[in-house]
């Protein structure tokens, strides 16, 4: 399995990238703006809007397009392994294809129970 460890290390070098600078989300900012002279009613509305947007998953700061960070996490337990991808679904699919083809062709092993899952769906 050492060859698999080395292969995944090479994949992580290939796919990992640091994120760019985060910018202010204009939707979040427009819904939650207040000033020092804002009325108490406006401050309460802004707090309520902040809570509502946070529950919807809308963040105050966001990455620009194509500047989102990508990270590959790899853990192996005897003959089983788990790979976590912090990034897009397309990247996860391409990493999975490369690993399955490496296992089948180079290691001459058959893959069973190979699936792609979102972390929040389990």
Which terms summarize this structure?
elongated, 122 residues, alpha+beta, 2 domains, two-stranded antiparallel sheet, 44% helix
Structure description:
The protein has 122 residues and is an alpha+beta fold. The chain has 4 helices and 4 strands; from the N terminus they run αβααβββα. The chain has helices at residues 2-15, 26-32, 40-55, 89-105; strands at residues 22-24, 61-63, 71-77, 80-86. The chain has a two-stranded antiparallel ribbon with strand order 1-2. It has a two-stranded antiparallel ribbon with strand order 3-4. Strand 3 (71-77) and strand 4 (80-86) form a beta hairpin. Helix 1 runs antiparallel to helix 4. The longest helix is centred in the C-terminal third of the chain and has 17 residues, at 89-105. The mean pLDDT is 85.
Give the rounded overall mean pLDDT.
Answer: 85
User: How many β strands by DSSP?
Assistant: 4
> What order do the SSEs take from the amino end to the carboxyl end, as H and E?
HEHHEEEH
Structural class: alpha+beta
- Given as residue ranges, the uncertain stretches (5+ residues, pLDDT < 50) are none
- Radius of gyration of CA atoms, rounded to a whole number: 21 Å
Terminal CA distance reads 27 Å
**Sheet bearing the most strands, described?**
2 strands, antiparallel
Strand content: 15-25%
Helix percentage: 40-55%
General shape: elongated
* Number of discrete domains: 2
Number of helices: 4
Query: Can you list the strand order of the major beta sheet?
Result: 1-2
